[in-house]
Amino acid sequence: MKFLVFGGAFDPPHKAHVALLRAAVRAIMPDRVFVVPAWRSPFKAAAHATASERAGLVRAGIIKPLRGLLGRRLSIHASELRSRRAVYTVETLELIKTLHPGAELHVLVGSDNAASFDSWKSPLRLRREASWWTARRPGAAGPIPPFFKILPERMPDIASTDIRVRLLLGEDVSRWLAPDVVSRIRRSGLYGIRLRRRLRGLLPAPRLRHTLAVADLARRLARRWGVDEEKAALAALLHDLGRAVPAARLPGLARRLRLKIPRSDETLRRAPLLAHSYVSEHWARKLFDVDDPAILRAIRRHTLGAPAAAAMSPLDKTLYIADSASTDRRYRGVEAVRQLAFRDLDAAFKSSVAAKLRHALIKGEWLHPQGLSLWNSFRR
Question: pTM of the entire structure?
Fold first, then answer.
């Protein structure tokens, strides 16, 4: 018997998954088709939806659309979900062969996963265990190993990461997802929908508009410079949580939370509003369960930056610039900074630091020593 195995995170499953599986079924004519959602990919952080949520999405987004074509031949193989750990593909294939002795295995993967095949566990053994299939997708990274059988159909340029970013930013994704998948995502508040609802309840309307403008620019800059778009968008959405607190209450809150603010006592006395980025980092971790150090650091650094420019990561710079030059900003020269950011990230970062210092000087405000240190580091 021919078995076709189609595995992945399916976080979320989209129409390109359906197109890929339909093309493979036409080429292979399998007796059974197993869709195998991973509990967690060995190459990725934890999935953005739980195992049970993704199982429901797979049923709605892959099984249901293909039920008429495949009938009872198509099913979810839940072994990896039940394991509650990252399972290697070689383990799943061994299990299937144990349960179905003599089965002829065919494995289907997306072109991005195919390009990374040599980094999988036991790649030589995997090649012996099964025939491998994929299809080309515009925008996919890396060459496909020559032993893969390439399906002739060209796949839609859809990726789950891009869909998650679009959902996080509140964009319409209905043309890439089955209607039942969209309904389930909205009903459960997945992929940033619940987060955005909470933000609307926390932030005043003008601050929310600024936050959304920052998130839009951060996402576009991240794409331009190869920064993780999902991290940039999430950091931007949470960067101003601390602005939900009036400036007069920030010193007391920062002291109660024991936040590590540079020159803490002086900062809280002279410029308490600067503490908001440290409050934002704390609440991103405690209220929104963000545990990615890179995201938390970018949130923390979007006001004072780091003591030296060299210490700022591309993600740090992306958020710093997006906050300084978002489309709701109106200071003189902001449009030039915004345009520069797509040509030269470092130059735009320097211009953004200069703009913040210039704003403080014009208003006669105290210049924080770390901000001055950051500016002086450009001269070294």
Answer: 0.91
